[in-house]
Each structure stands twice: as C-alpha cells, then as structure tokens.
Amino acid sequence: MFDIIQLLPDAVANQIAAGEVVQRPASAVKELVENAIDAGADKIQLILKDAGKSLIQVIDNGAGMSITDARMCFERHATSKIRKAEDLFAIRTMGFRGEAMASIAAIAQVEMKTRRHEDELGTCICIEGSEVLSQEPCATPAGTIISIKNLFYNTPARRNFLKSNPVEMRHILDEFQRVALANPKIFFTLHHEGQEVYHLPGTTLKQRIVHLLGNNYNQRLVPVEEDTSIIKLQGFVGKPEFARKTRGEQFFFVNNRFIKDAYLNHAVLTAFEQLLPDDTFPLYVLFIEIDPSKIDINVHPTKTEIKYQDEKSIYAIIRSAVKRSLGRYNITPSLDFDQENSIEHLITPKPFEEIVQPSISFNPNFNPFSVPGEKKSERSYSSESAYFEKKGIPNNWDTLYQISKRDTEEQHTIDLDNNAPNVTLDEEQVIKNSERQLFQIHHKFILSQIKSGFMLIHQQWAHERILYERFLAQLQNHSGLSQQSLFPETVSLNSSDFELLKELLPDIRNLGFDIREFGPNTVIVEGIPADINHNSEHELLESLLEGFKNNTAILKLDKRDTLARTLARNAATKAGTRLSLDEMNLLIDQLFACQMPNQALNGKPVISTFTLNELTERFEK
C-alpha cells in the first residue's frame, strides 16, 4: 500500500499561507509599509492604481538589502527579527514571521529594487507566482522600491471576491491611517490614480490626528497621560459632544502596533459613562507601552490580537486615566469667577446707585361688582389706576350658553343611562367627524378616534416610514427634488468618508442633494432634498455618512435601501415635536398611503389600536 501523506510544493504552501496573510489589497499595503518602517525609513511613499488591484508600490529610504537578503526575503519563514524562541517575547518590530513577502509573491507579480546606503549598485529581482524570473544589479536610490502588480492574477476565484474599488480603497485608507498614527514622526504620502490623497509631514501625534481626520478635530481632543509600573499610557480622547454613531475612530496601539481589543475598549466606554448619548461611540487614539515579555502578540496571523499577563490592572489604569482627563480638561461646565464680570455685577451693586424699595400702587375705590350703567363720575378713579377701569358686562352674555349647547348637540355624546343608545347620530357621520378629532399626547403620540375605539400612532416612526418609502421611490425613479441653499456650504471630510461619499454620490444626487467636489477631501453642498428641513448642510451630510456606515455594518442591506433608511431616520420629525392639527392630519393621510403603514423601520408596529371592549373590561376589573 502506497503512502498518502506528502509534502506540499512550496508554491502551493505559499498560496495557502497567502490566504491567511493577504485577504485583500489592504493586507498587502499593511505588510509592505510595516516592512519599510522596520527598515528604519523616515520617508515612505505609497502609490496605488485600481485600488491596489493593478498596482501597489511602496518607496522608502530605509536601510535597504544586500543581494543575498533580497533573494532570501521571499523565502518562507526567513526573517531578520528573531533567532531563537526566546526572541518571540521581546519583539518590538512590526513583522517577524517571514511569511508576508513569500505569500505576496505567490499570488502577484512582484518587482523589487533595493540598495544599501554603503553600496554603489542595488539589486532588482522579479518574481511571479513564487517563481524567480530574474535577479540582476541595477542603479536605484538607497532604500527599497517594491511594486506588486495584478494581485491574485493566478487565483481568479480570490480576485472575484474582491469588492468594488471604492470599498477596497476605504480598507486601504483604514490600514494607512493606523500605520500613520502609530508613526507620527515619519513622512508619509499616498497617491491613488495619479492624485495625492495624503501628504503627512513628520509632526506631533496631535497634528497627525488633525491631518488624518480633519482640521475640525483640533478642538475635539483631550490629552490622556499616565505612567505606572505596569504600563505607560498616552494619547487623546474625543470630547463627548463629538461622539459618532460608528466605531471607526477608535485606535488602540500596544508598543506602536494597532490592536483590536473589546476588553480595553470597554474600559474606555466605562470612563465615558453618563457623558455619551445613546448608541454613540467616542473618539480615542491611545498608545500603551508595556514590557514585551508581559504580552504575547503571536496569537493571530495579522497580529491584531494580544494576550496580557495582567489585563485587569491594565483595564483599571485605562479607565481611571481617561476619566481623570475628562474631568481635568473642562468637560463638565464650570464658572470662572475671575473671568466672569457679569457675576460680580450681580453680587456687588455700584456705589453711586441708591437701593430703592419696590412699591405697589392700587386703587382703593375699585369695585369689581359695579353696575354696567354706572356713571364714571361716581367711581372717582385716580390717574394711576385708570388702567384698571372695569369694562361693562355685555348684555348678550346668556347666548354663550346657547352656543355651547349647540356645539354639544352636534358632537357624539355618551349617555350615562344604560338603557339609552350610545350613538345619537348616524354611524357614518360619527366616523367622519372623529377622523378630525386628533390629539397629540406628550408630543410623541397621535390619538385618533375610529369606529371600534381609538388608535395611537407613534409620530416619529410614522414619519420615518413615510420618508423611507418616498426616498426609496426617488432612488429608483431618479426623481428627487432639491432646494438650493442661499449660501452654499463647504464641507471637509476625512479621506475614508470622502471615498464613501464619492461611491454614494450618484444615489445621493438622486435624493435631491446638489453636491460637487471641491479639492482634496472637500465638497460644496449647494442644495439639499426639498423634503428636509435642516439648518446645517455639514451636519446633515456627516450624519448621513455615519448612519450609512452604521446601518451597513449592522443590517447588511443593499446600498440604496440603506441610504433611504438612513436619510429617513435623520430627517424624520423627532418625538417631542409639537404638531398642529393640519400637520397631524397630513401625517396620517401620508402614512395610510404607504405600502406598509404599520411597520416601523426598526420592525416594530407604528399603530396600536384599542377597542371599546378593551376599555370597558379595563374599567370593570
């Protein structure tokens, strides 16, 4: 009988490893940029075409490689970072396994030019599908230039699973932001399709955050700093009033390595207790420095998960440090008695002002029961009290009772006598009148009488349903109307949101937005949908993008449905808004014209009906 267990060929083994290391172009970008950082580069350029599918090029001025190292870096488990098993617990570099370059070379066409600073000539090596095509000397600047072309060219099934270019570009921007935040002193540039997306000179951490996320973040940041025997913590958190609906702006770094840790994230959220609105998440960029022997980073192929020896102490330190920073930097309102001059005026009167006791004047001869025909001379009013002169009671005062009696007879009345009929008018006339008898309860619900009893309508959920179906029809028919702004507003976004906006722009215009690009990461809003009343175009656009990202992550709906749902929730009349009788009638008419009037966007019922029998049983209990 033949043996059935065999060693896999290197090319097949590399493709299997590539499935763990390189899931999409963003994974390759992360590995290449981190290698450039490990090489000691202080200037790194990233050039992309077709969202990394056609070309990913990284240019750095790092240490470079010799002829032998250039060939060895594409072998599996070939690394310069570790020599023995103990080195795994003293790692401070980004990469160490020696799998990234071999995995990338197995699924792409790779060209690398590298030269050490002390060498006169460099090395150029070309590899396709783990096969070395050529290696020869070349003239190249000191450092490394590596180009990855046609990612997944030999695994078409993997390539077919890639998303659209805007989606893949957003993933690349996420990875780029993480690396750029962790290394603020390094100069980074990012070019896509010949256009410069990022130009980040070496600077401080705060300025790097502002350059990446936008100039409006300069006033949103609160510094956090704590130095203990267990960890050293530093970074920034966002003020509570600027919390967003998504978790996209939350960054934890351990020894300059980006990690995802729900346990530490909970520590930060606990520090924000009673400061954040519901379903919002704060911004934070926090760096933890810890002894490498106290952690294990070799638990995940992408090295984004870490195990700690004393995680409870780290949790407590992070929670207390963030909470103290929020209290220290004027997050809670306070009064500065040295600066507030108006308070001093309230407490100490001016010396030249004389304090006058307030006086009350009245007319002692005023008679509220005076006869209408009484002469004015008999009342002897003073000039000060002429304002209180009592007007005569109208002679036709008794007709008020006749009006009230007539109005009462025209309405539906209930006789307390059990033998009397409940309805005094014909049934159709009663229902017709009851449709106009609407009441708003606590500015949240609308009560309407119906034939069998009454119904309660949730006004916010009803308006969301109306707008959702209207926006969905506008997206399908390209029929959204726009109201032009008198003063167009310029809106600056971070690169990730700007890429998302460009992806959604055709559908957003179908809804009635009039938006055009205006420079890098900037748009001009010249009009908004005619159905929306909003004071700030910037807030409306930002909330639309945030809601879209949140709904996409949770509901997994298609793009148009998610966009209509998000805009409807942002534009709907909120609970607590006072409605007039005409507005309530219009809301009910539009609700019952919907295809699904009794289902809110969250799946709950919009209308609750109560019958007379239910009311009777409740009173007879």
TrEMBL record:
Source taxonomy? Bacteria, Pseudomonadati, Bacteroidota, Sphingobacteriia, Sphingobacteriales
Instruction: Describe the task this protein carries out.
Output: This protein is involved in the repair of mismatches in DNA. It is required for dam-dependent methyl-directed DNA mismatch repair. May act as a 'molecular matchmaker', a protein that promotes the formation of a stable complex between two or more DNA-binding proteins in an ATP-dependent manner without itself being part of a final effector complex.
Q: Say yes or no: keyword Protein transport present.
A: no
Cite the HAMAP family for this sequence.
DNA_mis_repair
Which gene is the coding source of this polypeptide chain? mutL
Give the protein name, as stated in the record.
DNA mismatch repair protein MutL
Q: Give the source's domain of life in one word.
A: Bacteria
Q: Which SUPFAM superfamilies match?
A: ATPase domain of HSP90 chaperone/DNA topoisomerase II/histidine kinase, DNA mismatch repair protein MutL, Ribosomal protein S5 domain 2-like
Q: Which UniProt keywords apply?
A: DNA damage, DNA repair
Which organism is this protein's natural source? Mucilaginibacter polytrichastri
